[in-house]
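note to self — DONT lose this again. spent like an hour looking for the file last time. sequence + predicted structure for the chain T wanted, 237 res
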Amino acid sequence: MTTAHPAPQPFVDRRAPRPAARPRAPWWRRATSVVLWAVVVVGVGAYLTSLAVPLWFQAQGERLLIVTSGSMAPRFVAGDVVVLRAVRDASELKPDLVVTFQPVGGTSLVTHRIVSLHSLPAMRVADDDTGRMEPVLDEDGTPVMQPYIRTQGDANAFPDPDATPVERVRGVLLRVHHGWGRVLTWATSAQGRAVMLVPPLLALATLEVLSVLEGRRRPRPARHPEDDRRVDAFVRV
């Protein structure tokens, strides 16, 4: 009696050829990449920091103000930065506090020390186009009283000429950062933005060009016909 054996199944050799080892870049190429990436990291990091610092203080409910004069020397001078907090109530204002305010009729901010508090008639610009100030009157003709502050710079010999309504106070001094003003002024200028962003862009472009040139110069591995051939072996009994 003859016993039938099942025919053996063919096997296929699908082993892929080993890729050729990638040649190592020369030392000058690696050093160039390190320098260019350092330029990118430093430039972009400086730019992001210039944006993040004011936003961080704003998130804390504070405000940065760059000092442009020396009227409060030696407390702070031009080129420093003062940190302010908003005034929530007029009762917070007291003599000897340093506050930032917008003078009546002015557009710029002034940071001086409060020397006294007063209750004076509220004033408004007259309607006769002369710029003259006149008191605000209520229905019975009585002047409306309003809290005012008198201020003076620490480096000034005399108080400021005009009293300031409390409603024009923009903030109370919290801290002083010496020298920050020059850095922030430069960082927010067109020149500063160009210095921080143009070199990283050029560095990235250079890295891309070097990568393309390196790919063109790299030799391609030779391809053999047997690499893609499948070998089927049949075993017969």
